[in-house]
Amino acid sequence: xxxxxLGATINIARGARDPPRASYGIKCYDYSIAMGLTExxxxxxxxxxxxxxxxxxxxxxxxxxxxxxxxxxxxxxxHYDFRLEMDGVLKSWAVPKGLPWEKGEKHLAVEVEDHPVExxxxxxIIPQGQYGGGTVMVWDRGNYHVYGEDPxxxxxxxxxxxxxxxxKAKGEWAxxxxxxxxxxxxxxxLKSGESIRPILKKRDDxxxxxxRTMTQIAAQRDAEWQSNREEESKTGLKSRVKAALKKKRxxxxxx
Length: 255
Fold this sequence. Notes:
Layout: E1 2-5, E2 8-11, H1 38-42, E3 66-74, E4 78-86, E5 89-95, E6 106-115, E7 124-126, E8 134-146, H2 151-157, E9 159-166, E10 170-179, E11 186-191, H3 201-204, H4 214-220, H5 234-250
Antiparallel strand pairs: 1-2, 3-4, 3-8, 4-5, 5-6, 6-11, 7-8, 8-9, 9-10, 10-11
């Protein structure tokens, strides 16, 4: 099957699981990430939230294998965060309705601040009172490919034709910028190519990282305490243990 995009013809074997990566000429650009994460860091108190700070040296990236992640995020409103690894950061959009599945269907996507690449694996709790406080699930992840030779240029021009190869999302989508507001540029996430059967309700509420539901992630709260700070002092740990034991003595279990 031949697909034409941006003046290039790409041949994809019918039924093949992975598009030939080299054919897309994509590069995972790794420029300086200091400026890209300025807004992200301004909005967060890393002494409170376990979200990654970013800014660490990145491993060598493989040409043609750029990551994407979609995180289900129950903050002030439930939405999906769509992220593409590019320029050494995760370019990010908040998508209230999630991915469209029918060909031609369009969903609003609001561009937000760049996130560090470490955020691609974050699943857990952002403490209330922090920016984006709530439950975060790794809803989908995989590789993405962009038609054309220069993905950052396509992003700057406001039109990205994507092929997603994730655990849930497989197929073609397009990101099209519709408005350039100073604060949050607005885009449309368009389902291009063939229509795809929507994800079942059970699968929609299941993490591809841990298999947990949003309720289970919120109840277990494990990632809230997996801090990226230095190991907590023994004194602090002892204080929490004493407090927990004291609370248990006040509320004895049934015999």
